[in-house]
Amino acid sequence: MSHFKPVRPADRHQFDALIDARSPAEFALDHIPGAINCPVLDNEERAIVGTLFVQQGAFEARRVGGAMVAANLAKHLHEQFADKPERWKPLVYCWRGGMRSGSMVQWMRLVGWDAQQLAGGYKSFRRHVITQIEELVPQLQLRVILGATGSAKTRVLQALEAQGAQVLDLEHCARHKGSLLGNLPGIEQPSQKNFETQIGTVLEKLDVSRPLYLEGESARIGRLTVPLPLVDRMREATAIEIAATPDARLDYLLRDYAYLGDDVDLLTGKLRVLTESLGKETVGRWQNWAQEGQLSPLFAELMRLHYDPHYQRSQSNHFKLWDKRQCIEATSLAKADIERIAMQILALESAG
């Protein structure tokens, strides 16, 4: 067995398993990618111990909490860890690398496993994520994919990745399509911390000497904020526009947002937000179409009156190389066309 030594976040890939000893609520907010949650105190127990600490002091909190921790550790040894071999090497962390992960590591090492504790716990990993973003983003060779709403930019990114390109899909990380109607049905957006964790994890694996393709986003995706260093870098990046025809975009939107026809209340509520800018008459007409399931005229007018005017203004204001952008024209956005667009985008690199 190797001797106990501090382990840093960058060393985490050297271990057989990554174990988060925090409560399920803490784990749900954010955790190190790939970690499994084996809490030494569950949500209710953690609240009880915290209350005891405040009301009766540290000793009573440790006495009661210690019994809870022992019971939970026994449960994990009987269940999650029951089939682990003698040479199993897990890395354990809690909030700041204190008693919760320390107690688990101590018992694991008594069993005979080469368990180690992440120095500084989740807080050190959080600092690692922020540092990764701050240090790596300025080195990125960004290629920003632009295009009016309905230009299949996300699908093009997926096709680029399938063809071997490096891709950062911010909308996937945010669980949101980035537009007025961008909420995904039945899917909550992650916490801001988890959003940044996903971004940092992608950046950590990149070859910074190769291009990285991403969609040109605003500073916010739904309720989440894109890290400022990345926003600044995007604004200065090489711009590639998918110039799809209105008919192609409408066909794509009707496929990509078909699920909105199943939740009329959600759709009419989202449209209500536009009343101030577009007027009651227009929004009322759209809400009636939504009630009747007529998505085609609704999306056609949304494009013409809302999305497209906003797009033209925002691109020239936000992307410094907009006037020098390279355009890929498209009259259809079917699967084969999207794959062709991706190939054309990759060809621009060799042509340049």
Question: What is the structure about, briefly put?
Answer:
The protein is of the alpha/beta class and 352 residues long. The protein has 15 helices and 11 strands.
Q: What does this entry look like structurally?
A:
The protein is of the alpha/beta class and 352 residues long. The protein folds into two domains: 9-127, Oxidized Rhodanese, domain 1 (3-Layer(aba) Sandwich), CATH 3.40.250.10; 140-351, Rossmann fold (3-Layer(aba) Sandwich). The chain is built from 15 helices and eleven strands. The protein has helices at residues 24-29, 43-56, 58-78, 99-111, 121-136, 153-162, 170-174, 192-204, 228-235, 246-256, 264-272, 275-278, 280-292, 295-318, 335-351; strands spanning 17-20, 36-37, 90-93, 116-117, 141-146, 166-168, 211-215, 220-221, 224-225, 238-244, 326-330. The termini are far apart.
Largest sheet: 5 strands, parallel
Q: How many DSSP E strands?
A: 11
Uncertain segments? none
CA radius of gyration is: 25 Å
Query: What integer is the average pLDDT?
Result: 93
The oligomeric state is: single chain
Basic shape = globular
Please report which band the strand proportion falls in: under 5%, 5-15%, 15-25%, 25-35%, 35-45% or over 45%.
Answer: 5-15%
What is the H/E order?
EHEHHEHEHEHEHHEEEHEHHHHHEH
CATH class of the largest domain: Alpha Beta
Domains counted in the coordinates: how many? 2
Number of helices: 15
Gross CATH architecture of the largest domain: 3-Layer(aba) Sandwich
Secondary structure: helix percent = 40-55%
- Predict the CATH topology of the largest domain: Rossmann fold
How far apart lie the N and C ends? 54 Å
- Lateral arrangement of strands in the main beta sheet: 6-7-5-10-11
Q: What is the structural class?
A: alpha/beta
